[in-house]
Specification:
The protein is mainly α and about 80 residues long. Helices cover about 55% and strands about 0% of the residues.
Amino acid sequence: MNAFYQALQKPRISKTEALRLAQVALIAGDYNVVANTDRDIVDWEESVRANLPDEVANRLSHPYYWAPFTLIGNGL
């Protein structure tokens, strides 16, 4: 969810696009698409991986982790 809110802060990014970017970041393991600065990328990756067991942190691309998130209402 942190990736979603970081992407949502970018100018001209809709809620739908922010959700898509956050899902792609988890699938690809590339958080550059959602971070505002290089420091944000490092902080976010470290916080995500530090709070998860290694076997989970290495499998975040599995749909179990990114597919349940949906938008309700107007996604614009």
